[in-house]
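[SOLVED] Predicted holo structure with pyridoxal-5'-phosphate

Edit: marking solved, answer below. Original request kept for reference. I posted the sequence and ligand SMILES and asked for the 3D complex as structure tokens.
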Amino acid sequence: MADSFWHDLIREVEDFRRNTRELRVCTPVTANEIRACLSSTFPFDRGMPLDTATREISQLLRQWSVHVTHPRYFGLFNPSVREAAIVGDLLAALYNPQQGAWSHNPAMNEMERHVLRAFTKALGLPEEETIANFTSGGAEANLSAVCTALAHHFPQASEDGLASLPKHPCIYVTEETHHSLVKIARMVGLGTKSIRAVPTTDLLQMDCEELVHAIRRDRDAGWMPFLVIGTAGTTSAGVVDPLAEIARIARQENLWFHADGAWGAAAVLSPRLRPILSGIEQADSVTWDAHKWLSVPMGAGMFFCRHANAVRKAFAVTTSYMPPQSGPDTDDSYTVTTQWSRRAIGLKVFFALAELGLDGYANLIDHQTQMGEVLRHLLENAGWSIVNDTPLPVVCFTHDDIVSNRCTTAGILKTIYEHGKVWISDVVIGNQPKVLRACITSYLTNEKDLQVLIEELEHARNSLL
Ligand SMILES: *Cc1c(COP(=O)(O)O)cnc(C)c1O
């Protein structure tokens, strides 16, 4: 059985990858339909042959998923995945390296370090000082940033708690900042009232004059500003905050500067796009998700920090049951991250980078950026208007028929999802009414796919009038 099982599995993998474009991107379904199917196929009272289970489960995933690896999935930052990265995840499962302690898997620990070094250099952070680690995603990387900034600014609080501080610390973001920060403020005990939304300019970038005013005002009112977060590619509209200016203000006001580039930081790999992220190299810490624009499976975030000792201070712990530290030039990741037992998250990224090289990645990123530009032209030619301003491939758009309430974004999405040929979403940016949002998330997306998107939009709009 063993041989033919693996052969069949490989055939299934090849078949899915070859034919993804032919599938519906999404199929509306109710929870009860799926539950009924699961109860009859998987009663769990006794086991079943692995090949049968594999067939059934593949079928379920094919039928009732939003296929984010489809070239016409224009959604949130969920990518098509590279073959190399799939191999990486398979080998991570096969060897099951325990990444928590360096000595348990020297090879894998050094492979992760090797990848992270390459990206540290691409970001322009100082290679010797910077410590970097893989995380489950951007949310964990942002959590790591807040923990590290707190440990750096208020070392005593790691023993006595934030409640022991004479004044309350506060954080600067904008309305466009990712909402993982809301949960983080609760988790670390700061509370959401510690988050200050600095007003944005017409371009939805952090207004740096307002930032300075807010810092002064809060200090006068008895708060302790300690952290500012600039976003390199906002989730809704792909906007890049003025990172260099934020860095300057942070230095002047003694604040930690965290750059959240969960999706957009990948633009540093493209020589054409690199200037847009100018200032990211001055950040105290950076979030960058490999599972977004680097086309590897979830979850693979990355956290970079130029102050290695602040990270060690935030996460240091000693136990008798863990293997001893390996040496002065290695860190056991359970002592420098939020996780303990740890999967070899970086293996898929290593594989993808090994196969593509940095220049291969630059080509994929440039191609997707180019497709974003083509999409803007096609939309405008078809009478739609673009409402966000970014060189990155997130396109927010609307239509006179939406603005004048002849149809709604929700109506358009419903029609589009029923058709199943493309997937897009809607979003509120600034304080405007809802607009539609399409992001190029697949390195496989081509101009024909974009034309299908336009046809689907026009069909949905016309059917609602
Ligand atoms: C997606 C995103 C996050 C959260 O990252 P996850 O990988 O989903 O945890 C944080 N910040 C920004 C700007 C994002 O786009």
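OP edit: Residues 346-381 form the longest helix (36 residues). Thanks to everyone who chimed in.
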